[in-house]
User: Which sequence fits this backbone?
């Protein structure tokens, strides 16, 4: 049986995601598709619009066979760390044959060439990279400028992640074979949907501002609409500014900039700026706009804020620890969870109340951290919407 894996956020799930799953099965011959999906917070440094259980259900209704939770400490890290940890987790399942990912270019050879050049770290590349950073360019821009033959490729977000996946495959020595599919329709930053394909950002805006828009129904698979619309009707769409008061609390609890620099993604320069300018913080988004600079992207600032809010410290000893939950699976693929649990080198949980007690050490701490993060996400959304709180131990595995 040929098994493919997709690393995703599905924030929210749309026709482009369904197309990628379909291509994995119809064009690449995968019998099963596993998704390693970010939890309640995502890589661009904010909350997912809908919770992970709803997004997992949409993924299954959209064609995926099984959805696993990607721990938030990795799912909210830089592109390089995000890709490496995800690839490493999938590789350690010992049952994945293909790693399938989208890209703007859809050219695996071109992406591999860029990954090889970056991975080789040749002296001329490193020198140009250093020059770009000295000029005040952000790391992504400096890297693109250091490789002029790949400059346009490295300016597009899905291409960047694709390159990082390829680097991670080489770094881990994985036997998973890579495959890419060209992104269809609207680009990542496009403000509105285009045809039957839309960017996730455009859909999040519509769900917030125009939940009855026909464009949502055109760009989201029909089967996925009921759970997505029911979720947003009950809770609204989660936004970074919902966590503004927690950010303010963290900023004002710090007695010096060094305390802020202890958190993941917070550089010394950013810590000083956060501490010095905290009197001007009027909310998560506005403060991110204020502190973003030519050499520090707004996304990097948002990730740093999020790590501060979630309590992800640099020295907590959890980096490299793995543990995941089965969020859901298709009934036609009911053999898949058992096969994964039998072959995986780290815990793959299906019954939290029974299996969590058996964990110990870093794996137990990682699970407790993930549950705390998810409960914080749910609590904030319930506070805003007035909807009832449902804890993770009360959640059931989604079966579609």
Assistant:
């Amino acid at each position: 049986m040929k098994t493919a894996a997709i690393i995703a956020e599905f924030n929210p799930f749309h026709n482009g995601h369904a197309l990628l799953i379909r291509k994995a099965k119809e064009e690449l011959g995968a019998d099963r598709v596993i998704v390693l999906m970010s939890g309640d917070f995502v890589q661009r440094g904010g909350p997912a619009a809908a919770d992970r259980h709803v997004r997992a259900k949409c993924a299954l209704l959209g064609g995926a066979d099984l959805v696993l939770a990607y721990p938030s400490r990795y799912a909210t890290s830089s592109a390089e760390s995000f890709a490496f940890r995800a690839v490493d987790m999938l590789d350690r399942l010992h049952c994945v044959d293909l790693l399938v990912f989208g890209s703007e270019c859809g050219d695996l050879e071109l992406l591999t060439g860029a990954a090889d050049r970056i991975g080789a770290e040749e002296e001329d590349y490193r020198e140009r990279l250093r020059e770009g950073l000295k000029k005040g360019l952000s790391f992504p821009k400096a890297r693109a400028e250091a490789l002029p033959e790949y400059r346009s490729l490295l300016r597009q977000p899905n291409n960047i992640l694709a390159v990082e996946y390829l680097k991670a495959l080489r770094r881990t020595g994985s036997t998973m074979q890579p495959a890419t599919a060209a992104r269809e329709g609207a680009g990542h930053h496009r403000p509105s949907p285009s045809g039957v394909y839309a960017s996730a950002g455009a859909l999040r805006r519509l769900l917030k501002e125009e939940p009855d828009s026909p464009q949502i129904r055109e760009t989201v698979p029909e089967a996925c609409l009921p759970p997505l619309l029911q979720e947003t009707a009950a809770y609204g769409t989660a936004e970074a500014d919902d966590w503004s008061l927690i950010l303010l609390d963290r900023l004002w609890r710090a007695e010096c900039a060094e305390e802020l620099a202890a958190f993941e993604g917070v550089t010394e320069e950013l810590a000083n700026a956060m501490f010095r300018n905290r009197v001007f913080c009027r909310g998560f988004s506005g403060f991110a706009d204020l502190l973003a600079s030519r050499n520090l992207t707004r996304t990097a600032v948002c990730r740093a804020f999020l790590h501060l809010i979630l309590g992800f410290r640099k020295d907590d000893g959890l980096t490299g620890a793995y543990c995941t939950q089965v969020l859901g699976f298709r009934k036609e693929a009911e053999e898949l969870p058992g096969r994964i649990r039998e072959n995986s080198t780290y815990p793959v949980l299906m019954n939290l109340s029974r299996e969590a007690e058996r964990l110990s050490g870093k794996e137990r701490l990682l699970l407790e951290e993930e549950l705390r993060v998810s409960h914080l996400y749910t609590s904030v959304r319930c506070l805003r919407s007035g909807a009832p709180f449902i804890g993770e131990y009360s959640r059931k595995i989604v079966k579609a």
